[in-house]
Write a structure and sequence with these properties.
The chain has 124 residues and is an alpha+beta fold. The chain has one domain. It is built from two helices and seven strands. It has a seven-stranded antiparallel β-sheet, covered by helices on one side. The longest helix is centred in the middle third of the chain and has 16 residues. The radius of gyration is 15 Å and the shape is globular.
Length: 124
Amino acid sequence: MFCGWQLYADYDRLIELGNGKLKINILTKECHVDSESIKPLSMASVLNSWLTDDLKTSKIPPEWIDEAILTVELRVNKNPKSRRGTPIIEHDFKCRGQIRSGVDIYTVEFSDQSGSQTIMRMAT
């Protein structure tokens, strides 16, 4: 979901951030880049809403989720084709999503290189 169309609202911010390690706490919507707190990206709210809806649909009580973290190694550049205030980005994202419930940890790792996505690992 992080690499989908809803990230478009954060393109300007991603261009400003450039390269670094982004961490989004999906439960609290808090964002950090290289361990420094930043104003939350709009994607944090999108992910929070998705998780809340998915838990409800799956009949999983929200209190069962102790932690939901997305970590993204960012490499972002503004594409020279950007124009009229509409940014286009070239990017290389290495993402790691992790949900912890008690002692159970669910992890997925994937990459997105300017739209080419690959799931690298899923584990429970």
